[in-house]
Amino acid sequence: MVLVAHWYQDASPALAHSRCLLGSVRYQNLYDAVTSATTQATVIAAVLYAAPCLVGIILGAPLVAAEIERRTNRLVWTQSISRSRWLIIKWALVAVAVVALVSVFQLVTQWWTGQVVMRGLENSQIPTSGTNRIERSMFGITGVVPVAYSLFALMLGTALGAVLRRTAWAVLATVAGYAAAAWVMLTWVRQHLAATVFVPYPTSQNAQVLSSPRPVGWPVGFGYQVIPGKEHLLGGSSPGAVVSRCQTSGSDLYQCATAHGLQFGQVYQPGSHYWALQWSEAGIYVAAAIALLGVTIWAVRRWRA
Amino acid sequence: MTAVLETRGLGRRYGAKWGLRDCSLTVSEGSITGLVGPNGAGKSTLLRLAAGLSRPSEGTVSVFGQPIDPNGTEHLGRIGYLDQHRPIYGSFRVRDMLTLGRKLNTEWDDALAPQLLAEVGIPLNVRVHTLSIGQQAQVSLAVCLAKRPDLLLLDEPAGSLDPLARQQLFQALLGTVAERGTTVFLSSHIVSELEPVCDNLIILAASAVRLSESTEDIVATHKLIIGGPGIISTPGVEVISTKTSGRQTHLLVRGVLPNLGPDCEVLQPDLQEVVLGYLTQAGQQSAVSDGSSTDSAQIGVLP
Q: A51 and A154: one domain?
């Protein structure tokens, strides 16, 4: 286990556990470096993460709800235009403005995160390969996903406003809904959007792992795998069944699992998967936004005084 | 005469309370029909049902012979609806409101709205929220009228208007009916104003239709009797309302009266007195019972 600890500490700086020099202060990892450099950096990062949700609240929640509250819907829905057409046109104008605004905003954000990454790389002691934008602290504010997030937040606000018919309730519900969606995506979905890479922990048996290059990327979590050539030790059960049996058996988990031909290691999404994950996640959010547009049209057509 | 608006047993319930119940009426083409009644009688409910903004809880409503599809542009294009609250976009300029009307409608008279607004002295380039309530009402009305609909559904259009503006409104309505055969269905509190303008009158009270007739018929068939305390019954005459003050009794009746003798005075009521009589009847009925049946007592005079 001591070997594992050392190995973690000496890993490349793009990982969460790296050493960086920023100014004259040493930091334990890149995230600390980014957020402690100045208070401004912390605030900026927080604002960038919150920005898509704010877009959804400010522009989406009142889109339909305020019309209903102020009764102006009784004016526009008795002109000669159908309610669906009215909604789609109004929403499209706002959506185009949102995409344009967020895209421009993204240019600034890309530059800022690029600066942070560069500073981190410059000041590290160990050479690296690949990008670290895939890790959790950076992924959501770089690339194309912020535009997808803002479209989703806009549509969530509009749909909740149309269903709840009150702007105040739509605001609260949008915040809750957006946070729930983000949590689900981050915890369960994103790591499966591309094939993960498994890197076994160094042990006394496979010391050559220490010398091979470690992938740069986002450490998803702890995992296990069958050692190639030792499948027969499983005795016909699945790796998961073996591990749970070892956990309940009371003996040392590590020894028990190794005896059955399993090895433990780190599951990564390597940095090279950055754009695959970006487009997949953006696609999911945009699909959800389109579904919410359908919900809004249904709610608007269904409204009666 | 084709029926532009027709309802059969129309009702709308809000939870346990009925806003409108068992409403059956017909509005014929090219007529001006007035809808009167106290607050909460169901006038706004009826107009909203006709516009397609509300869904009936029971019964049917059809406009131009078709059941209403609130998302159908066919129906929407032929009606003009003005809500009681006269919703308007405060941050728009007056001319933006006219642009809204032009863009959202297929048929739009570009000259009419500025003309109507010029008559009442409302400039086009000010923001709506800077106008008074009455002026905002006039902007809403101008947008409604410039759409040139075949059926106008106006919920208390004269509400916030000064007497001169009210007169101009009714002139404009009479004009559009004469020129284009528009059907107007409007509600109001002020019966005396409706009298010279309306062909037909509908009295709504306590969520039910009390009377639905042409104004000529109403005036012809109703009489006001002021008499002494003694009264006996006569067949064929319906008592609408009774008011006793001291030694005199005022009766509003309907039907052909026999010769009542010198003790009774028979007067011709104006429309306002007729309406008051029906509203009093509705009030008395709901005070006594659930008001489901009208009293068909008969009158006469003791010799």
A: yes
The answer, yes or no, to whether residue A12 has pLDDT greater than 80, is: no
The Cα of A282 is separated from the nearest Cα of chain B by a number of Å equal to: 33
Residue A293 domain-assigned (yes or no):
yes
* Cross-strand partners of A225: A263
ipTM value: 0.86
- Give residue-wise pLDDT tens across range B216-262: 888 888 888 887 655 555 667 788 888 877 777 888 888 877 777 77
Q: Which two tokens stand for residue B29?
A: 């083409």
Tell me how long chain B is.
Answer: 303
Give me the residue from A70, A80, A81 closest to B87, CB to CB.
A70
Domains of chain B: residue spans and CATH: 3-205 (3.40.50.300), 223-288 (no CATH)
The parent domain of residue A79 ranges over 2-191+287-302
- A86 touches B: beta carbon within 8 Å: yes
More confidently predicted of B229 and A191: A191
Number of domains in chain A: 2
Radius of gyration of chain A (CA): 25
User: Do residues A22 and A159 both lie within one domain?
Assistant: yes
H-helix or E-strand spanning residue B47: helix B43-51
A298 and chain B in contact, CB less than 8 A: no
